[in-house]
Prior knowledge:
single chain, 366 residues, alpha/beta, Metallo-beta-lactamase, Chain A, 7-stranded mixed sheet, 8 helices, globular, RibonucZ/Hydroxyglut_hydro
Amino acid sequence: MLVAIVIIVILIGVYVLFMNTYPVFGRRPSQVDIQRFGKSPQYAHNKFENPVPAMMNMNFGTTLGILRDMIKGSPYRRPKAPLPMEKPRFNVNGDTTVTWFGHSASLITIDGKALLLDPMFGRMPSPFPWVGKNRYSGGIPFDIAELPQIDAVILSHDHYDHLDYGSIMKIKHKVKRFIVPLGVGAHLIRWGVPAAAIEEHDWWEDVSFEGLELACTPANHFSGRSTNDRGATLWCSWVIKGKNASIFFSGDSGYTSHFKEIGDKYGPFDLTLMECGQYDERWADIHLMPEETVQAHLDVRGKVMLPIHWGAFTLAIHDWNDPVTRAAKAAEAKGVKMVTPPIGQTIIVKDSDVQSYPKANWWALP
């Protein structure tokens, strides 16, 4: 019995030491931060919460069903060959442009500023990224050294498929400012980003940044990077407005009335980057189904929709191109203009000539 107790104590000690020293997990907000969070309408019961409760607690039967579906598998959960990529154009002068790098990582150039959204450039969204299969494209269509100076990295939340330790470590020296939801700054500080280069925001806060008008807006999701930090940091969507273009970035979210509220306050948008992927009816409260992606685009009063959160990783049970296939069908039925540029292709955001956007259905290939 004594030996068993000693072994258990040692294992607990090793676990605690690992959780506190392994940098990929980030850092929980401090007590000073938590006192500051108490002023947020989203903070209650010592954590951030959705105003519309998200059902994420799976019962035993549901859990068994998910495990069964995962084991059963499908030959189409990953593409049969690496996805095509194009070399991006890193020109921050002149036109407003968007370059999608797979999943939610995107580069926006607007009014001469370069903004990186959720820059996950790693091979696998996990605390142990060397385990598991590589991203669908096999990599990213550029070398990190080729990135221009980044005026701001804008983050939606701290999940591994959006906030990647390895990517931040490689790009942080190129970034002037990190603009993030409440609490996410603690991770960045642990990774060596100066606190003075970070600003945190709550929902419905308007932000002026070097001539751009941003807004931190709601999303129905959750946060967490380890076993006991769910809700320790906030999650959000973002409004980005320049002199001649307006863009909405949805982050991750289930479908609620907040999309219409955002559209009423900040719309219309020339382009929306809308979450579309990693969904399932069993967790529809925290991820949009493809048909809801199109409706959310309409709710925020978007003109052109670029579906994101797909095309890089298998994080759900659906086929790899099911998100864009279903979204394209729903978009056609509702008269929504949807663009699907290949990974790395830089597109110009236009406020009037929507017919000139690229129309290649590369994702329909086997």
